[in-house]
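Hi team, as promised in this morning's meeting, here are the two structures we talked about. I've kept the exact order from the run log so nobody has to guess. The first one is mostly here for context; it's the second one we should focus on when we meet again. Sequence first, then the predicted structure tokens.
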Amino acid sequence: MLKKIFSAMLGFLLVFVLIGCQPTEVALPDLTGKSRAQITETLEGLNLSIKYYFDLSVIYDEESDYDKFVRYGKDENSVQLAVGDIVATKTEIKVYTTPLNITINYLYSLSDALSLHESDYTGKEFIADGIGEVTISKLVDGDTTFFQSDGQSYSVRYLGIDTPESTALYQAWGKAAATYTAEKLQSAEKIVLEAEGDRQDGNDRYLAWVWYLPEGGDKFLLLNLELVELAYSKNKVSTGSVYSDVLTLADWNASATKRRVWGEIDPNYDYSKEGTQMTIAFLMENFADYMGLKVAISGIVTAKIGNSVYLQDESGAGIYMYAGYTSSSQLQIGAHVAIDGLTPTVYSGSPQLTNFNRLNLSLVTESLIITPEVITYDDFIFTNIGKYVTMNQLTVTGVNTARTSIYVTDIEDHEFVIRIDDSTGFDADDLGVTVGQVLTVTGPLGYYDYDYNNVFEGYNHAPSKFQLMLTASDNIIIE
């Protein structure tokens, strides 16, 4: 009996000694190159707990950069911790890592009920039946494309997503999303659109789930879902959609990585506020070098289309500035203004400035007189787009059914269009324009190419696609 009691006491004593030998302090190890899983294993092995944060302060553009240790954070006394520092065990250690690797969990494993099968669309047409095979008509951005079927071309807005802007506005990751969408669609063997719920939005664009069959593939993939899983878009799916659950899960997983639209720096986006100061003439001569960056320009307002304006510098070079729904009382014809933080982009082949913010606008001088430059068809070149001009002896050959496009020829029989924007409130009938009349027209020189596919490098601006913009009813003289 005494022997048993003695053995038990010896056991308790041994446990007490072992517990007493456990360290109460440890040195923070070097975690360079370790992933979060490895960091957790290392620190928990030292009897430390971890609270993770992301370092989103720099650009990470190599796959090997992701899910890697960056630095320790501060302790509870706001002292910055570093490798080798001594801390008490059971302390919660703040650890910063790079964004995480993206994993695709749902795109290739949709249930049979959610997948697209050939029998679903065979013999059907999208406009008439709500599902059907289509071809690309025109690429726009990450979530909008013009498709074609049954002899029609129509704009389609992708359901369930909203990628950053890359056309009328320019946002971080917008161009990357547009490029990714273009690559997937252009390389696809087949594309099928599937409607769900409302067929069109308020802008008369069709709404659809976009399926594509990859080259050499045997299963259709849902591009809307893919863009969410790859963090090119946040989930915007409507409640009640058959894809609500899977997009919600994909969105949650993508958000946890802090990649792309969830916080990562876009290496091709200019985050500066003011931009590089330059003249409009310099910008037009070097436009490709500044696309997507920020610029600061000054110029005289020569014409208005809604809230948007045409600006012209002292040399006579001009450009269109898209303002969208943002208005400013200072943007009046004849006003000399200076504007910071604008982004040069191209829309349907036409150069423009976007991302206007009224807080970046300052008025230099009011009520200046604008003198248009007289030009001919030979002056239809890129650097003249946006310039305020006058053209003489234009013979009317026709008017479109909407009465907003006046077809004319010059004295050498070159054909082009005088365009009246809807925001002006008048049309060709209001102006009394009829076939056979000879006109003198003043306005900004515009450009429009329906087939422009957002590739500026190497693009040739065809004279036949230039337009003379008629923005005021008194800027036309019928001879």
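And here is the second protein, the one for discussion:
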Amino acid sequence: MSKSGSILIEDARRALRLAGELHELPPSLSVRANHLINGMCELIGAQNGLLCVMSDFREGSDPEILHSVTGGDFSSVALRGFAEYVDSEIIKDPLVEATVHDCKKPIVFARRQHVSDRDWYGSAHVAEFRKQFTLVDDSIYAYFPLSKPGLIVGLGMNRAWEDRQFGKRELNLVELMHDQLAWLYRQFENEDGIGMPTDKRPLSPRLQQTLERLIAGDSEKQAANHLGLSVYTLHDYVKELYRRFGVNSRAQLIAKCLAFRNGNQSG
């Protein structure tokens, strides 16, 4: 690795080769995104990565992940953790909180540029979630704003908890790749459900599972045990279901959901 952090010729060749491979793959965004993340893991020495489309990505709002693709190396625990991150933990991520206002143009940044070690390791998200569930620590994030305000594509590349932090070389390589991928990012605007009003979008798998357990009569504790989640995380899902269906109680949620299923959407 270059001590100065400069990109070596071979680094640039590998990055541009990866960008070219994406054009040659079948026209499936999930396949292309997964190939991108796997290639980036090899290129910058990352453990894994997540590419996602986010709505309401602006200051004062709670960003929501509408579509996500993972790649790289995951344990079963880490996979469960990333599923929870997609459904609820993103709004607690200190790096998202520190950068949610800064996405008027494409941007790439390392965690240390926006969140100090003290604030990072002192946050509940990192100490209680990343360390125990996703099992990753240092990250490089890249944002690409789409045409609708607040709608962006985000790429996060992560290193394992015990690994060293990303350096300038890795940051420069992600920037180089990010510059080549506008054509791919813009295709996500045409994905089903993206850009639709919140109450018209399909539920994520975790939200759907939570709803099914509530309809089956489970308490939040029982549903959490059944799904292998913490009660804290399950409660976040319940609150999101309330928001999606425009209700304030479990009884109203179940009644409205059953009305939808029976074809009566006025309830």
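Starting points for discussion:
The chain has a mean pLDDT of 85.
Strands lie at 48-55, 64-72, 107-110, 136-145, 152-160.
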